């Protein structure tokens, strides 16, 4: 229960710190110093000024190092590949004696570069896809560099990474939709790889919880996992307080889907309650 409460507090902290606007504010700073010219990204508008300074130091130091490695008279430029309120990704480019690239994923909530383990469960299959290659986030998937300093020309769509997602963080970089019991029976249009977070009232202390009921033989539906959170004013030390189960899932194929959810004890076949939602996936 304490973990659930702490997760709720973490989400509230993130919201207060950086979710007031739809994107991170990324400004352009021009360079005209010695052998380096061009422009680099800097952030503004972060509530914690120390985090903002840390982020801009990371970006400036990375651009400086990349320019030195490129050698000669160097032109620095960048491209923003992904921008969300709590994180963003950029690719720095240094064109000098040689042309080099450097991808950076910034976590605004910590003021540091993102850690892969914060977003993905790093398993053997994940390593086979991504390995130790440098990557940045984009709207549709990860962009990878074939080798250190190379262009980020390889893409792995998020649909190929669904089963490795850390459900506590995946909503930060995936396009997602919140669905509740109020729209039971309705239809949600979405795209392949979009995340669905279904919020349903529950009380797991009774042994009951929500389960996807008819997806075992339904190709295209990918269950990501469940989470549970208490109401904000609930005492985390109190046993048996009802809250909400969040069922996370997505789709890796286009099509029309009718997905059933059952509220039941896992050892009992009969469900206490059922919910059905429809999805049109393009």
Automatic annotation (TrEMBL):
InterPro entries: Chagasin-like_sf, Cys_protease_inhibitor_I42, Prot_inh_I42_chagasin. It holds the Pfam family Inhibitor_I42. Keywords: Protease inhibitor, Thiol protease inhibitor. Coiled coil: none annotated. GO terms for molecular function: cysteine-type endopeptidase inhibitor activity. Residues 190-279 form the Proteinase inhibitor I42 chagasin domain. SUPFAM superfamilies: ICP-like (SSF141066). This is Proteinase inhibitor I42 chagasin domain-containing protein. It comes from bioreactor metagenome.
